[in-house]
Recover the amino acids of this structure.
């Protein structure tokens, strides 16, 4: 009789839980899946909390509705699989703003993460260079080439477009700078188009045409009950054994599979598994890879992360503009790098008592001084800066919450995708039942993490089926 597979998933964020659901759906009946989560809470950066008697996201706020090819995103597909499709809601106010010279201006249309597909539309906010984007007679990128987003956009369109448009857009997503972030990893559709197009505007238009969006179709969605409902539903549907407070400290190869060392040094437990999926950030993954795959561990462990803090204020009856929020270029000199007017943006969060929820993001890679402030000082600074941006003192908050995410956002330098491909190829060749997945490899955002976990699960299933043949 064939013994059922034993699969260990290290990490109980949405990547690991999506993988667990995929094992449930695709692995043979009887497969034993165990999820090891070091903290006492599942979900990672998906964390729905409560403030002033109502729900609020203390981590990720929403997910993209479409995948890069224009189809349904992996997050939507997972929500549907978990019976949550009817709970998906969309922003009721979609217009965001940029803070330019101390004034809020609407984010120009027709851009791809701030990179314009029409120079006239952005001229009022970020005037392109006088000789912008001339056709040099060859594609912008050679096959296999990567560059930073900032380097490409500065060269083609000038500094103002980077600093007033692209940098705040990327900063809002990655807490990083356009001059440091890989084009291939952060904007893969644009990178693909740049290998054929001779101008940056042409590449933006080609990338947008490759994934057309129906007029009026929503770009973002969230769940009416909060994103933690996605986490809870995935944990339940997976049928996996979920162990919280279970730190995996070591991973070793055995003749028949893998041995995990779990728990404190003085009371460690050794667990055997046929396959292991590491769905944790790069540095803890590197520590676990060190014994079996030291070269892969060195590459994985070199990935750096930015830390951020999210400060949410519950304000009684503030006068807020009809905006979803605003982004702040680094040159504006504020502590805040972005703000979301939750109860304006999301109609399902609006409250009959008129209480408004406003969230601000603080912390940029390489400049995290503001994160040294106490929670009270951070909240005071955010309240003060929001009042200045909006041009009138905001009311005193009735409640406030500071959520710190240390080492939260991967910083993908040029060549990241090629390095990850090499790591995975080496692991696949040497240890096909060991896989890595998550934001540290494939990009940020709920759909990317879901797809990363599902893909890793499929590869492990294929490897186990091959070993049993």
């Amino acid at each position: 009789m064939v013994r059922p597979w034993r699969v260990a998933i290290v990490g109980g964020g949405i990547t690991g839980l999506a993988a667990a659901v995929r094992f449930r759906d695709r692995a043979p009946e009887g497969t034993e899946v165990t999820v090891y989560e070091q903290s006492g809470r599942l979900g990672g950066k998906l964390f729905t909390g409560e403030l002033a008697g109502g729900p609020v996201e203390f981590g990720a706020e929403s997910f993209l509705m479409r995948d890069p090819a224009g189809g349904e995103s992996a997050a939507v597909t997972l929500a549907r699989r978990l019976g949550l499709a009817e709970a998906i809601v969309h922003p009721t106010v979609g217009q965001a703003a940029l803070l330019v010279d101390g004034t809020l201006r609407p984010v120009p249309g027709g851009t791809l993460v701030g990179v314009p597909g029409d120079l006239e539309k952005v001229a009022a906010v970020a005037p392109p260079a006088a000789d912008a984007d001339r056709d040099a007679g060859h594609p912008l990128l050679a096959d296999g080439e990567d560059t930073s987003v900032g380097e490409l956009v500065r060269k083609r369109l000038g500094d103002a477009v980077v600093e007033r448009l692209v940098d705040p857009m990327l900063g809002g997503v990655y807490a990083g700078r356009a001059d440091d972030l890989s084009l291939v990893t952060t904007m893969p559709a644009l990178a693909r188009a740049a290998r054929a197009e001779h101008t940056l505007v042409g590449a933006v238009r080609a990338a947008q045409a490759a994934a057309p969006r129906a007029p009026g179709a929503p770009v973002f969605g969230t769940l009416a009950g909060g994103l933690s409902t996605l986490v809870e539903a995935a944990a339940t549907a997976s049928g996996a054994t979920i162990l919280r407070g279970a730190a995996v400290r070591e991973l070793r190869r055995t003749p028949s599979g893998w041995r995990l060392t779990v728990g404190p040094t003085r009371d460690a437990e050794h667990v055997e598994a046929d396959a292991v999926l590491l769905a944790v950030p790069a540095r803890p993954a590197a520590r676990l890879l060190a014994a079996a795959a030291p070269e892969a561990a060195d590459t994985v462990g070199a990935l750096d992360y930015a830390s951020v803090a999210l400060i949410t204020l519950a304000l009684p009856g503030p006068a807020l503009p009809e905006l979803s929020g605003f982004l702040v270029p680094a040159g504006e000199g504020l502590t805040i790098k972005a703000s979301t007017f939750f109860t304006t943006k999301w109609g399902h969060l609006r409250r009959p008592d008129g209480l408004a929820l406003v969230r601000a993001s603080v912390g940029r890679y390489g400049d995290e001084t503001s994160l040294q402030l106490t929670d009270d000082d951070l909240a005071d600074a955010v309240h003060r800066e929001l009042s200045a941006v909006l041009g009138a003192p905001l009311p005193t908050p009735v409640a406030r919450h500071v959520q710190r995410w240390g080492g939260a956002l991967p910083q993908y330098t040029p060549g990241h995708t090629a390095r990850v491909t090499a790591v995975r190829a080496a692991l696949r060749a040497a240890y096909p039942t060991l896989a890595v997945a998550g934001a540290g490899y494939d990009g940020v955002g709920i759909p990317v993490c879901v797809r990363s976990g599902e893909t890793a699960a499929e590869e492990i299933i294929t490897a186990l089926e091959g070993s049993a043949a």
Q: What stands out?
A: The chain has a mean pLDDT of 95.
